[in-house]
Design a protein that fits this description.
120 residues, mainly alpha, 7 helices
Length: 120
């Protein structure tokens, strides 16, 4: 809940801290936790803390919205691309290569470089 503090609650919180009241007393009389009261009084008394809180709030409010991409707007792979992907996924591999995520034979950067050099 985000209930606004009143001046009476601020005064009551100060009195409860002066008498070193327990957490239960804070909850019963103030309806808030001791930590919430401590942060409220720090906000009221400490200008630096108040400024930092306002900056955090402003930054969160004006942060750039996240880009939303719908599945329908994503480009769909062509039939050739799907066929190539299936061929790579079902290519024979050793157990070690499968577990460690090694590319299929002929698909690693080293294999492609060697193939390109052999063509020259």
């Amino acid at each position: 809940m985000n209930v606004k503090w009143t001046e009476d609650q601020d005064a009551l919180a100060r009195r409860l801290f002066q008498i070193e009241a327990s957490e239960e007393t804070f909850r019963e009389q103030l309806g808030r936790t001791k930590r919430a009261a401590r942060l409220r009084l720090r906000y009221l008394d400490d200008a630096g803390f108040r400024l930092a809180a306002k900056e955090r709030k402003a930054t969160a409010r004006y942060a750039a919205p996240k880009k939303i991409v719908s599945i329908a707007s994503r480009p769909q792979p062509s039939g050739d691309q799907l066929e190539t992907a299936l061929h790579r996924n079902y290519a024979p591999r050793s157990v070690t290569a499968s577990l460690l995520g090694d590319p299929a034979p002929g698909q690693s950067a080293l294999d492609r470089r060697n193939t390109a050099e052999a063509r020259l």
